[in-house]
Write a structure and sequence with these properties.
The protein is 74% helix and 0% strand. The protein has 533 residues and is mainly α. The chain is globular. Mean pLDDT is 79; it is low at 50-56 and 297-306.
Amino acid sequence: MSTFGFLILQDLRKFKNYILEIKKKPWKLLLYIFYILWFGFILYTAFNGNGDKQATSIPNLVFKKDLFSVLIKALVFVLFTTTLYSSSKNFDGLFSMGDVNFLFPSPISPKIVLAYSMVKQSFVLVITSIFMVFMFPLLQVFYGPLHPGSMVYGIVGIMALFLFTVPFSYLTFVLSTRFGFKKWLHYFLYGLVIFILMAIGYGIYIQQDLLQGVFWAFNHPLFNYIPIIGWSAELIGVSILGKTALSTLFLVLQLLTIGILTFLAIFLGEDYYEDALPSAEKRWELLRNKNQGKRMSMKDAPSKKVRQVEVKSVGQGPWAFLWMQLVSNKRASGSLIFQWKVLAVLIVSIAFGVLMPDKSSMIYFIASGAIAYITFLSSMQVSIDYELKMKYIFILPGQAWKKILALNIVPIMKVIIFMSCALLPVGVIFRVSLFSIVGALAFPMSMVFLNLFSSVIIHILIPSSFDMKAFFPVIRLLTFLLFLLPPGIIGIIVGAYTNSVALAFISVAGINLLLSALFLWMSELMFGRLELR
């Protein structure tokens, strides 16, 4: 057997354990079936639209397409620059200390291990890219029916962009550390940023308008010719903007670039073990600190300054968890309100309100619904997830519902702050009624509250942390069917009867709050069934 085949066999043996786990617990097969059905439903919803239908009834369609093009190019540019900057400082490998002790001392060539690592990482990124299809139903709300072929092209563009980062990150790290090009790579990065800013400034000057100047800079035909950045943006934009004569050429050029970078990365990979060892040690340290109750991330540097917090009072019993959450947040961020994330959300909200030409209440409710939809699909950080890895939640005195409430107060405060910064400025700029603002705020907030207070029940039903990650989409589907569908039906009935979207949103939010209280009460009764992770 070849060495490459040996590496594949080792991973297949790990995969065999998952198959045996399904054999021991047949109910997991049902979850996989739900997983496939849900994904199939999303695919059917996304690709069943009439791609040839002219979306002439959609208001401001040209502006929306220009805005989409700018956002895609800006996101691709940010991904490229962050990958270049972070990879010039450190390399995040995919190996654990077990691989270091078993694989690295073996006679297998580091170049073969690097090639296999890149293949495995590419496979994971391709699978991740496929799940971007979940965003197409939301895009069809704004842009009308999308052509299936264009959506496939967009997914392929996302895959190509993600695949590019695999060899590019390692090659950047090698050039920075082994050949001493770190300073020159940073100069290139700064020059690229300055060039984009100068293009935007020139666009504003000739257009005599801020928004049109930004559109001119990013949507200029020459932007698409920028290697990787322009090519990727062109391919991803096909899903909304349609295929052009250069789309296929850019795809070929990007795949050719990925092939060349992969060859160069493997050619320079004779010291791959030394390059991957620091990240493996970092992962081991992260796992050890997690088991000891210390919070740490892969991006944390040993020299990172930690804020000193003066503790004036300590909560007693279950409210000690609230005190702990406040102290942890203050050490990490300094404040619940004055954070860069909050400021960024506020700026984006104001910009959206000012630049959006159609300042109607319906657009405002669509924005609220989009935030709620993204919140529903995304993984929300639940405080109890971390506490279940420790023993304090089980041994500290106090009623279970008070412990759960204390753990969720800080996340609730964060949600209120972020949602208010995201939707309140838009509502004020759009001049919608106060009742509409309340409805638009309450709807996404209540969905987060429901997620927080149903977490104990979800953990009891699926106690394994691995299963929670593996079946996350299925859990979201079951959450929708059991928790969100009944309030949604009632909200539709109320909205249809009263002809008020705001009242429908408030009705859904009210029922979600009642369900949250119900789940908190049920968590009190079922708390004894929780397991230490």
